């Protein structure tokens, strides 16, 4: 079994990534590694934040690890909230307040196109690699569904009639930004493992 440390304090993300992983891979969360502090996210891009979190954990543990940063990019709002997605309505990171702000800012808008973008930063033997996953869709007029987390109740992925919050976890993982980015990460790691001398 190959183990990777996932530099996140978000249990929803750990659970989604574990569901996407193929046999032979498992993720260890920061909590399992005894790290409970909030990770720094001071950069102005998703790439910057993902790297900052991965570097922070690598500096503490000295072990290969990856971090991810996700943003919701709403077309009619010029890509907002983007890197500010978690704190859109303030530092409390309250999902209901965040969704409400997005809905209010989109009132009357006919273009409701949006996408989730996940960037994964991997540190392997000190080298850094980035992976990206995108899920396109639209922002609903109101919340729908109670599953998932974050902005899931107001995001309807392209080609579906339900919001992410109305989908079972398997369906969301198959089409989601995070699912796509994690599958790229695993493909990269498997390719590298198959080429490395034994
Ligand atoms: P961060 O990547 O932890 O900084 O999270 C950014 C923000 O995006 C947070 O408000 C999360 O709740 C939200 N978010 C991240 N992934 C998802 C998702 O899969 N669905 C809905 N919201 C998400």
What would your notes on this structure say?
32% of the residues lie in helices and 26% in strands. It has one domain: Maf protein (Alpha-Beta Complex). The protein is α/β, with parallel strands linked by helices. Strand 3 and strand 4 (80-82) form a beta hairpin. Strands 1, 2, 3, 4, 5, 6 and 7 form a seven-stranded mixed β-sheet that branches. The mean pLDDT is 94. It has helices at residues 11-20, 46-61, 95-105, 169-175, 177-195; strands at residues 2-6, 25-29, 65-74, 80-82, 113-124, 127-139, 155-157. Inosinic acid (IMP) is lined by residues 10, 41, 69-70, 85-86, 95, 98, 116, 148-152, 164, 176, 178. Inosinic acid binds at residues 10, 41, 69-70, 85-86, 95, 98, 116, 148-152, 164, 176, 178.
Portion in beta strands: 25-35%
Shape: globular
Q: What's the overall average pLDDT, rounded?
A: 94
Main sheet: strands, sense, barrel: 7 strands, mixed
CATH architecture: Alpha-Beta Complex
Q: Can you list the ligands bound to this structure?
A: inosinic acid
Distance between the termini: 16 Å
Category from helices, strands and their pairing:
alpha/beta
Low-confidence stretches: none
Helix count, DSSP H or I runs of 4 or more residues: 5
Sketch the topology as an H/E string, one letter per element: EHEHEEHEEEHH
| CATH fold annotation | Maf protein
The percentage helix is: 25-40%
- Number of discrete domains: 1
Please report the total strand number as a whole number: 7
> Rounded to an integer, what's the Rg over CA atoms?
17 Å
CATH class reads: Alpha Beta
């Amino acid at each position: 079994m190959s183990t990777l440390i996932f530099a996140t304090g978000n249990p929803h993300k750990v659970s989604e990534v574990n569901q996407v992983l193929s046999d032979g891979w498992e993720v260890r969360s920061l909590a399992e590694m005894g790290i409970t502090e909030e990770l720094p996210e001071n950069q102005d891009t998703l790439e910057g934040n993902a790297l900052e979190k991965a570097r922070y954990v690598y500096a503490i543990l000295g072990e290969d690890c990856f971090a991810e940063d996700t943003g919701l990019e709403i077309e009619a709002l010029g890509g907002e909230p983007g890197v500010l997605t978690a704190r859109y309505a303030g530092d409390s990171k309250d999902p209901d307040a965040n969704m409400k702000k997005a809905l209010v800012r989109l009132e009357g808008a006919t273009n409701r196109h949006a996408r989730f973008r996940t960037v994964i930063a991997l540190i392997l033997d000190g080298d850094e690699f980035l992976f990206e996953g995108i899920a396109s869709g639209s922002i609903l007029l109101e919340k729908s569904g109670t599953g998932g987390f974050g902005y899931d109740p107001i995001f309807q992925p392209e080609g579906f009639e339900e919001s992410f919050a109305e989908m079972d976890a398997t369906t969301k993982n198959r089409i989601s930004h995070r699912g796509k980015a994690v599958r790229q990460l695993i493909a990269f790691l498997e390719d590298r493992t198959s080429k490395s001398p034994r």
